[in-house]
Design a protein that fits this description.
Blueprint (H helix, E strand, L loop, with lengths): L2 H22 L6 H6 L6 H27 L6 H13 L8 E6 L6 H16 L2 E10 L6 E11 L3
Antiparallel strand pairs: 1-3, 2-3
Length: 156
């Protein structure tokens, strides 16, 4: 898929959503109109919406709990490299950057440098920079490590 086609799809999607929002939002004058349809929505539609919203979040939490209890854990240390390999297949022909943020101390910046160098820079050139993420502790003046960040840039 060409870059122009991708941009066209995105612009078309935004245009359609904007048209729908403008068309359907003409009668919205107050927050009550926006939040609950000016009290004109039947109770079963409102109830269904609330139920679906609740089940969506509850279901996701339940799935995570089930995966964890069965030992099906996505460990970033072992799963990130195949994930990066899959993500590189989504890049355009001339990508500008590829960014990885890891909010775990179990993944070193040097590992991010290696992955980005072998999977992105080897194909597209450019430069790779990685560093540790940290939170400054004002009382001690030290930095509390909380993860790593790696960035590949095309240089274009």
């Amino acid at each position: 898929m060409s870059t122009a086609l991708k941009i066209g799809v995105i612009i078309g999607y935004i245009a359609i959503i904007s048209f729908i929002a403008t068309y359907l939002g003409k009668g919205t004058k107050t927050f009550k109109d926006f939040a609950i349809g000016g009290s004109k929505i039947p109770w079963y539609i409102m109830g269904g919406t609330l139920f679906s919203t609740f089940c969506g979040g509850a279901t996701m939490v339940a799935y995570v709990g089930n995966f964890y209890s069965q030992g099906l854990i996505w460990k970033i240390e072992t799963s990130i490299y195949p994930f990066v390999q899959l993500c590189t297949k989504l890049l355009s022909d001339n990508p500008l950057f590829f960014l990885i943020n890891s909010y775990t101390t179990g993944l070193a910046p040097s590992v991010l440098t290696y992955m980005l160098s072998t999977e992105v820079a080897s194909t597209h050139g450019g430069t790779v920079k990685s560093d540790e993420l940290g939170l400054p502790v004002t009382r001690t003046g030290l930095v509390l490590p909380c993860g790593a960040s790696g960035r590949w840039e095309s240089g274009k």
